[in-house]
């Protein structure tokens, strides 16, 4: 199963909206076939492994990171392919939460194939976390990137912030952008930094990520009615999501698409749902303290990537705005899952505790 998880990790965003999946076929303690899902519309991991194994698949055990699909989508059901190949046993790490595709293990059992699930669940779920979040919460997987000084500042007292971290960290962030479907900032960051949000520090095989600005109040329309910020390019589309329906002519004339959603307490949830409808499965947030605090407070952050530079400022905005916490007892817990040196900086990856 560990080999299947490693194979699944070779998948890229080309698989979306499908999950990253790996499969290894074992017979007489020897791996006879292996594969992973490489692209949406292409062979699933099970099919790739069966093709590699050929006749050796008969009587083998299939170790799969996700329950075999049981429906006709862009491809046929993997459950039927496993049955036709004569596989004797199937071990799936994670059950498929998609109602349209689940039931593969039951179909295999009905055909007399032994099944198990749960082995390697944690690692397999991590590699498929974008898909699992999309299906469970009907929104994009949200990855929050923060870059701070040792004392938690994201800018100096005069507002300057380029560059807090070094070249290696900027390259790592560009690689994150290449893996995401869209990169989002708030209106404050858009106005203060006029960020490019491109991949100039890294290369990408697929299309450039969509650039998103969440501007509930319509500050961009007020401050910059001609849409001079975030210069639109043909290669990288930009979309503003707001609660202000008018005043965007200058932005739209420059090719920026504007989506106006009615104001309300659930505006951010509806904004994320809107992005999901656009096909955004993985959203990278590079916004400022206000947007970071809102996402954390609303329990919408699925992964945190924190870059800490060996610098001190002593003043200036903090990485995260007010969370409404008055006592240490109310602190929001985060568990680190990885940390490494990134040039002169330190890169930590973690998740917030789920209630």
How is the topology of this model organized?
Layout: H1 2-8, E1 22-27, E2 30-36, H2 45-53, E3 61-66, H3 78-85, E4 89-94, H4 104-110, E5 114-117, H5 121-127, H6 129-137, E6 141-149, H7 167-179, E7 182-186, H8 187-193, E8 210-215, H9 219-223, E9 238-242, H10 249-253, E10 257-260, H11 267-277, E11 282-285, H12 289-297, E12 303-309, E13 334-342, E14 345-352
Parallel strand pairs: 3-4, 4-5, 6-11, 6-12, 7-8, 7-11, 8-9, 9-10
Antiparallel strand pairs: 1-2, 1-3, 12-14, 13-14
Helix pairs in contact: 3-4
Task: Describe the protein in words.
- With 355 residues, this protein is of the alpha/beta class.
- It is 27% helix and 24% strand.
- It has a nine-stranded mixed β-sheet with strand order 10-9-8-7-11-6-12-14-13. A five-stranded mixed β-sheet has the order 2-1-3-4-5.
- The longest helix has 13 residues.
Summary of the model, kept short:
With 355 residues, this protein is α/β, with parallel strands linked by helices.
Low-confidence stretches: none
Task: Note the total helix count.
Answer: 12
Classification by helices and strands: alpha/beta
Order of strands side by side in the largest beta sheet? Answer: 10-9-8-7-11-6-12-14-13
How confident overall, as mean pLDDT? 91
Shape: elongated
- Beta-strand residue percentage: 15-25%
Order of helices and strands: HEEHEHEHEHHEHEHEHEHEHEHEEE
Q: What can be said about the biggest beta sheet?
A: 9 strands, mixed
Distance between the termini: 28 Å
Q: Percent range for helical residues? A: 25-40%
Radius of gyration: 23 Å
The total of beta strands comes to 14
């Amino acid at each position: 199963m560990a080999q299947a998880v490693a194979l699944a990790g070779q998948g890229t965003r080309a698989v979306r909206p499908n999950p990253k999946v790996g499969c290894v076929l074992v017979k007489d303690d020897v791996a006879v076939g292996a594969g992973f899902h490489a692209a949406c519309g292409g062979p699933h991991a099970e099919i790739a492994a069966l093709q590699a194994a050929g006749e050796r698949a008969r009587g083998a055990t299939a170790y799969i990171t996700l329950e075999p699909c049981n429906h006709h989508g862009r491809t046929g059901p993997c459950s039927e392919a496993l049955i036709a190949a004569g596989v004797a046993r199937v071990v799936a790490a994670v059950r498929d939460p998609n109602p349209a595709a689940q039931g593969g293990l039951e179909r295999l059992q009905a055909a007399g194939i032994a099944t198990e699930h749960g082995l390697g669940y944690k690692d397999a779920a991590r590699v498929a976390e974008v898909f699992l979040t999309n299906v469970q919460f009907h929104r994009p997987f949200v990855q929050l990137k923060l870059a701070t000084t040792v004392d938690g500042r994201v800018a100096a007292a005069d507002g300057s912030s380029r560059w807090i971290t070094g070249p290696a960290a900027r390259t790592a962030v560009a690689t994150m952008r290449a893996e995401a479907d869209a990169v989002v900032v708030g209106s404050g960051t858009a106005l203060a930094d006029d960020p490019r949000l491109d991949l100039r520090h890294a290369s990408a095989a697929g299309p450039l990520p969509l650039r998103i600005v969440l501007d509930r109040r319509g500050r961009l329309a007020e401050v910059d009615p001609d849409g001079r910020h975030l210069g639109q390019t043909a290669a990288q589309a930009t979309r503003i999501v707001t609660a202000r329906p008018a005043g965007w002519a200058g932005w739209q004339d420059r090719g920026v698409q504007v989506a106006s959603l009615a104001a309300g307490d659930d505006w951010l949830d509806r904004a994320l749902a809107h992005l999901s409808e656009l096909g955004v499965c993985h959203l990278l947030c590079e916004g400022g303290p206000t947007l970071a605090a809102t996402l954390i407070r609303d329990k919408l952050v699925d992964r945190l990537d924190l870059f800490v530079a060996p610098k001190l400022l002593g003043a200036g905005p903090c990485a995260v705005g007010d969370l409404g916490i008055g006592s240490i007892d109310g602190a929001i817990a985060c568990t680190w899952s990885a940390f490494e040196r990134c040039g002169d900086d330190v890169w930590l990856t973690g998740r917030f505790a789920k209630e």
